[in-house]
TrEMBL record:
It comes from Peribacillus frigoritolerans. InterPro entries: CobW/HypB/UreG_nucleotide-bd, P-loop_NTPase, Zinc-reg_GTPase_activator. PANTHER family: COBW DOMAIN-CONTAINING PROTEIN, COBW-RELATED. Pfam families: cobW (PF02492). The lineage of its organism: Bacteria, Bacillati, Bacillota, Bacilli, Bacillales. GO terms for cellular component: cytoplasm. Signal peptide: none annotated. Residues 5-99 form the CobW/HypB/UreG nucleotide-binding domain. It comes from the Bacteria. This is GTP-binding protein.
Length: 100
């Protein structure tokens, strides 16, 4: 299995994390690079999910991946790597909450 680059995007609320990620994804589409995305949200619903269309997206809700739901992140990454065999990805982005 090839190594997959992982990029962690963090910043304060409203700092442009999602905007940056959507621009990167637009560029990657032109290069036929297949991303996977892990979106972390403190609430029960991710209101920005629609921005990522049909990308390989995993939602981590109801907590912060750096302090309260680390086990969920670990399980999600394991699931992602297992599914990588069926649906290959080239790069992984992890977008933390605004308080990470």
């Amino acid at each position: 299995m090839k190594k997959i680059p992982i990029y962690i995007i963090s910043g304060f609320l409203g700092s442009g994390k999602t905007t940056l990620l959507t621009h990167i994804l637009e560029y990657y589409k032109t290069k036929n690079i297949k991303p996977a995305i892990v979106l972390n949200e403190l609430g029960k619903v991710n209101v920005e999910l629609h921005l990522f269309g049909d990308e390989h997206v995993f939602e981590l809700l109801n907590g912060c991946i750096c302090c309260t739901i680390q086990d969920v992140l670990r399980t999600t990454l394991t699931t992602l790597l297992d599914s990588h065999v069926k649906k290959p990805i080239d790069v992984l982005f992890i977008e933390g909450t605004g308080c990470c």
